[in-house]
Structure formats: structure tokens, C-alpha cells
Amino acid sequence: MKVITVRDYNELSAKAGQLITDLIRSKPDCTLGLATGGTPLGTYQYLVERYRAGDITLKDVQTFNLDEYCELPRSHEQSYYRFMQDNLFLHVDLRPENVHIPCTEDCDPQVQCDEYNRLLNSATVDLQLLGIGSNGHIGFCEPGTSFDQETFLTSLSEETRLDNQRFFSSLDEVPHSAITMGIANILRARSILLIASGKGKARCIADLVNGPITEQVPATALRLHDNVTVIVDEAAAALL
Ligand SMILES: N[C@@H]1[C@@H](O)[C@H](O)[C@@H](COP(=O)(O)O)O[C@@H]1O
């Protein structure tokens, strides 16, 4: 696992964005695994800027998102579908048919999990972008998730709901469940890029890099992969 420490969030976003730009330029038909949350916003902004500058095209890129909340329609401003539209998809030339996000609207969740898993496993993700939850979750794979888990319907921990409350007007509005890629899916990516910013991530980053490999800290599964880059700012690196 390669750990890169940068000064602040802006440097982190530029570094992560540059790595993804380099991949798109060297392999224009690459497959990207994408993440949501506050941390990748700057990375997506960087990609949009590079697209607008004419440095990259995403017309042949395929994407798979990690996860989606249940209990929210796709039109809800906090759905991950909306998040991706607002922050990346509407601003670049990705083809709608190349974009994949689990669908939790008007459906049988198990059927959706199976369908998403099948689609995901029919592709090979070249680069999986990840954030990390303060409890060490990746995607929405919460502590205790088996490292062998494939795409599944998961319950969100209270810690995760509290962390994500800032995006909603009250805790009551934060969904209790989600469809997420499993850890086994994430580990199949050719390369993984995890980004973390701020002191709230210092503990889980220390656990990820130096703690025991355990299902209680789902991100530690990444230590079983041979091509992982972690980019952290100085605040998130404080306990390394
Ligand atoms: N499902 C997402 C994760 O993919 C993300 O990594 C995490 C951290 O988000 P943030 O970047 O806002 O701290 O939030 C959510 O739970």
C-alpha cells in the first residue's frame, strides 16, 4: 500500500484527479469505480476542469458507483444518483449507457443487488476510487462485513447515519439502508485509490495503515490488494 501525504484538501483533490486523468489519457475506454461523500467532490471538480480544458474525454469511459441509499427516490437531492449527476455526469461527456449506479427505487432490493453484481462482475474496474467512513467503512460496507461479501443490501450503522446527517435536515431523514458493492467486488479492481481528508479521519487512516487486518475495520481488507494508493492530507495523516 502506497501512502501519499499532501498538505491539504486542494492538493489531495489535484493529486487524485491527476492520477485519474493519467489513467483516462492512457486508456480512454477504462472502467472507473466511483465514490460519493464529501471527499471526492474536489477530485470530480478537477476532472470537470480537465474535460473543459480539452485534456480528457470520457466518451468511452464506463463507470460503476459503489453504492446508493435505499428509501430515497433518485430525484432526491441526497441520492447518490443525483450527487453524481450534479457533480460529474452532467458536466462531462460520459454516455448515459456507460454509467451504472445501483437502483433502489421501486424495486426488489435483492433483485437489484443480483443484477448490479452481475453487471459489475462482467467488467473489470481499472481504478476504484474510495473515501472512508470514520468507522473504517468503504462503500457502505460497515464493520463486521465479510471480506468475501458481494453486492448486498446493508443496514447503516448509527455512526454512519450520524456522520451523514450533515447532508440532511435531520437525523430522521437519513436512510437506514443501502445497496453497496461488497468488499469482494472492491478487491477485484485492478487498482484502488483511497482519499481521506481532515482530522475526523485520522483514527481510521491509522487503523487502515497500521492496525490489524480485521473485518471490524472494513478498509483494512485493502491491505490484501497489491495495488492500493492512499492519499491523505496532513490532518488525516496525524496519527500515522
Ligand atoms: N457511502 C459513502 C462512502 O463511500 C464514503 O466514503 C463515506 C465518507 O464520506 P465523506 O467523504 O463525506 O467523509 O460516506 C458514505 O458513507
TrEMBL record:
Source taxon at top rank: Bacteria
Protein name, UniProt field: Glucosamine-6-phosphate deaminase
Keywords assigned by UniProt, alphabetized: Carbohydrate metabolism, Hydrolase
Enzyme Commission number(s) from the entry: 3.5.99.6
Molecular function per GO: glucosamine-6-phosphate deaminase activity
Subunit architecture: Homohexamer.
Family classification: Belongs to the glucosamine/galactosamine-6-phosphate isomerase family. NagB subfamily.
Described function: Catalyzes the reversible isomerization-deamination of glucosamine 6-phosphate (GlcN6P) to form fructose 6-phosphate (Fru6P) and ammonium ion.
Catalytic activity entry: alpha-D-glucosamine 6-phosphate + H2O = beta-D-fructose 6-phosphate + NH4(+)
Provenance organism: Halopseudomonas formosensis
Active site: D67, N135, H137, E142
InterPro entries: Glc/Gal-6P_isomerase (IPR006148), Glucosamine6P_isomerase (IPR004547), NagB/RpiA_transferase-like (IPR037171)
